[in-house]
Structures are given as C-alpha cells and as structure tokens.
UniProtKB/TrEMBL annotation:
This is Oxysterol-binding protein. Residues 1-24, 312-335 are annotated as: Disordered. Residues 312-333 have a biased composition (Polar residues). One of its GO terms (molecular function) is sterol binding. Keywords: Coiled coil. Residues 1-12 have a biased composition (Basic and acidic residues). Residues 405-432 form a coiled coil. Signal peptide: none annotated. GO terms for cellular component: cytosol; membrane. The keyword Repeat does not apply. The lineage of its organism: Eukaryota, Rhodophyta, Florideophyceae, Rhodymeniophycidae, Gigartinales. It holds the Pfam family Oxysterol_BP.
Length: 486
C-alpha cells in the first residue's frame, strides 16, 4: 500500500462528477428511454414511483448483454483485494481491503445502455484471471432476483449474494434514470467470519450537455463478528464557501468513517446492522425496517439491516464534522457509542485513501480481466444463447449501414417479444406447480407451513430495504439463501 500523493481522476471524469460517455448514441438512447417511459406509463412516471427495470423496453434502449453479464464487471479487483483480505489476520485491515474492493468496482461500467432483463433460470459463467470461477443465475422473475457465487480453488474466501434492481426516473435540472442494486453481498473467509456490504445508487444523466453516470449517496460495509462498520457517503455535503465561479467538489468524491460499535450498541444487542432484509427460519429473505425490529426481536429471525440511508449519511457527516471540531474525541465517541478508528477519502474514478494510505489507485492496482466460459462448453441455460441479444449485437456492428442496422434491430425486437411470451407462460406453469406442491406439503405435515413460498415482492421506500420471499430449507448459517451454500 502506497502513501496517497495526488488527487488523480480518469480522463472521462466530469468536472461536476461522474463518468462521461462521449458517444452520441448513448445520449440518444437515454433520451428515447425517458420518452418511452413517459408514453408507456404517462403521468405516473412523474412521481418517480415507477420501477422501469420491471418493464419490457424496446431493444434499441439495450446494450447487447444480459444483466447477468453486466454485474460481473464489479468483480475485476477481487483477486487483488479479496485474496489479500482473506490472508490478513487483522479484522480492521480486512474491512479496509473489502471496502477498497467495493469502491474500485464502481467505475467499471462500460455503457449507459440498459442490459437485457434475464430470463428466469438463465445462467452465466465467467472466470477471473487467477482462475477463480464466477457463477450467476436468475432465480426469480417477479421480482427479478439474481444470485451469484464466486469461490477460488484455494477456498480462502467466498463472495456470494443476491440482488434485485430498483430503477426510477430522477427529475431535476438534468433528468436521468436512477438505479440501485438492492440485496445482500457477503464475503466469507476460511475462519467462518463474514463481511457484508451494499452498493450506492447510480444516476444516469444524458439530457444536458454531458452524458454521464454517477454513483451517489450512502453505502456501507459491516464486519459483524468484530462489531466493525465502515460507512460511506458519495457526494457529501460541502461546507459553505462562496465562489464567483460556482466551483464545487465533483460528485464522485466520497467520505468514509470506520468505527467499532461499543458493546452497548453492538449489532447483536439492537440489530443496528446492515442491508434492509432479514432472514426467517426457512432461509427466506424479506424485509421492512418498521416490521423487522418487531419480528426480529419476537421471533427466531436473523436481522441483517435496520438502518436507513439517512442514518448512514448522518453517521458519515457527523463524524467528519466532529473530526474538524475542537470537541474532544473521547466525548464524541461516548456520545455516539462508537470508537472511530479511521477516516477514508477518495473518488470512485481514481483512488481510495484511508488515513493517508492509498489502498486503490486506478492507474496502478492490478485489475483482473474476466473471461467468459467457452460457448462450446456452456450449459443450455447460458444467457449468451439468447437470440435477441445475439441479433442486437449483430445490428450494432459498425460495418452495417443504417438500413441493415434497422432491419436487424426489428428482428431482435421480435425475438425479444417471443422470449417474453414464453417466459410469461413458464411463470404461470411454475406458479401452478408451486401452489400444488405447497398444498401437498401442507397435507403431509399436518397443516404446518411448508418450506415453499409463493409470494415475492420488493419494497425500497425509505432506505435500503428488501423483500424477497424466495423459499429455502433450514440453514445452518445466516445470510446465505439455500442456493448459495458451499
């Protein structure tokens, strides 16, 4: 780890924050997306309450990849940071390294295009350059839920979890599309301890002068076994400083604070922990913070997150303000039931420093290239077999003239609609079979609740929350759905 020495950001960094995409097609794609949403749902889109990720969108708004492929972009630094974290015996150092892994993956987006919604049951397999296999599967259609599993041959760490996507229209001076991956991401080590993290909100803008993607707001990383929390806030509030030129700090900068909770405020005692979901006895994840406190305390549930975005943001801003004040640190920590260990500063487009030590530098830190599995050996559910995605990829080939591109795009749209019709029928058959199976289990166990659940829904109002009624069997370990057990 080198000492921090500069304030570097990549060339594509916008002066106001975010990663700029200069291809005019990107801006046109975003403009048409917003226009399509307005036509499709009318005035409801103005409220920001329409989740466009669940809607069928025309293919000219897509990039020629499935979401299953898209999310693997985040893991390019796993061999460098997660292996180092696994080999560290210092809990604080481990947490710093996992946090660096999370931050470093944010800049890896390749396009503003929307990836294709995966077909239920579709899969994807790729490999990191150290040989670590990565497996991704679409496990739910309504809501869309994706599970993933990454484990090196050495078994020194396991990265696994699941997520859904919440997408809204963000209205303002430069209207854009706001998305967030909502779910649980877990790094488990050979000693059995786990670090859990979530991700910030992404805002894609393109109606103004710049076409860019920003990450905004809070996110955090938790090492529950050691009562350690690392809270982050992107685009934090800036102290008032009048400037005739209106200069501000770009939005891709972040502040962070790493602290240890006191025993009086430990996660085990009052569950002020992590990701907006909690787990029932059968291994199903769902959640609502207002309900979670009551249920987690009264029943045999494992709470995994009861903090809102506002609470995480306040954690960072109060710590940074106290740091610059004259108030004694011991008094600060006593008042907040936490021991502040260190502070972080950086930009997801350049670097990540912790107390003056640079953990990640986009110019120098080794980045893995992900190699998709050979199609000759891919299983039949591989998302790359999708005809609509393949047809769109052909349509976007630069050698095509406009007429050829339009003809192939129309063909891709027809193939996409065909697959959606098949998926709706498949979902109906699955649901009918699930209900029948549940009825059989209810009869066989004397009327007790069966291990299969039918309802799935997301609720993200008010913060980092999740409802995911995916059923499972009784688990020996928390956090992991049954499908992710090693």
């Amino acid at each position: 780890m080198a000492s921090s020495d500069d304030d570097y950001r990549i060339e594509e960094a916008s002066p106001t924050g975010g990663k700029v995409f200069n291809d005019p097609k990107e801006g046109e794609m975003l403009r048409r997306s917003l226009q399509y949403l307005a036509q499709r749902v009318g005035g409801a889109v103005l409220s920001g309450n329409v989740n466009f990720t669940r809607m069928s969108m025309p293919v000219h708004l897509n990039e020629p990849r499935s979401l299953l492929e898209r999310i693997t972009d985040d893991w390019a630094y796993a061999p460098h940071f997660l292996m180092a974290a696994a080999r560290s015996k210092d809990p604080v150092e481990r947490l710093k390294l996992v946090a660096a892994f999370v931050v470093s993956g944010l800049h890896c987006m390749k396009t503003l295009g929307k990836p294709f919604n995966p077909i239920l049951g579709s899969t994807y397999q790729t490999t990191l350059d150290d040989g670590t296999p990565c497996y991704v599967e679409q496990t739910s259609h309504h809501p869309p839920v994706t599970h993933y599993y990454i484990k090196p041959e050495s078994g020194e760490y396991l990265l696994a979890g699941f997520s859904g996507i919440d997408g809204r229209v963000a209205w303002g001076l430069d209207t854009g599309l706001s998305t967030r991956r909502i779910g649980i991401n877990v790094v488990q080590f050979a000693d059995g301890t786990r670090i859990v993290y979530n991700l910030p909100r992404m805002l894609v803008r393109g109606l103004g002068a710049e076409r860019k993607a920003e990450f905004l707001g809070p996110f955090n990383v938790l090492y529950e076994a050691h009562n350690l929390v690392f809270d982050f806030l992107l685009d934090p509030p800036q102290p008032f400083c009048w400037s005739p030129f209106g200069a501000t700090t770009p939005s891709d900068y972040m502040d962070g604070v790493l602290y240890r909770l006191s025993q009086n405020a430990s996660p085990e005692n009052d569950s002020i922990v992590f990701t907006g979901a909690f787990q029932d006895r059968k291994g199903a994840f769902f959640g609502n913070p207002d309900e979670a406190r009551k249920i987690a305390n009264e029943e045999n549930y494992t709470a995994v997150e009861l903090r809102t975005d506002e609470q995480v943001s306040l954690s960072v801003t109060s710590a940074t303000q106290e740091r610059s004040s004259s108030k004694p640190s011991a008094e600060q920590n006593e008042a907040t039931d936490r021991e502040i260990i260190c502070f972080a500063r950086g930009s997801f487009l350049g670097y990540f420093d912790v107390d003056g030590t640079r953990l990640w530098d986009i110019r120098h830190t080794p980045k893995s290239e992900l190699t998709p599995s050979n199609m000759e050996n891919a299983i039949g559910s591989d998302c790359r077999y999708r005809e609509d995605v393949d047809m769109l990829r052909k349509a976007l080939d630069e050698v095509n003239d406009e007429a050829t591109r339009e003809r192939l795009t129309v063909e891709a749209q027809a193939l996409k609609e065909k697959l959606e019709t098949i998926q709706r029928a498949d979902r109906k058959w699955r649901k009918e079979g699930l209900i029948n199976e549940t009825e059989k289990k209810t009869l066989s166990d004397g009327g007790k609740i069966g291990s299969v659940q039918d309802e799935c829904s997301f609720d993200v109002s008010g913060g980092q929350m999740l409802r995911d009624g995916i059923g499972g069997t009784v688990e020996e370990t928390p956090f992991f759905p049954t499908s992710l057990q090693a």
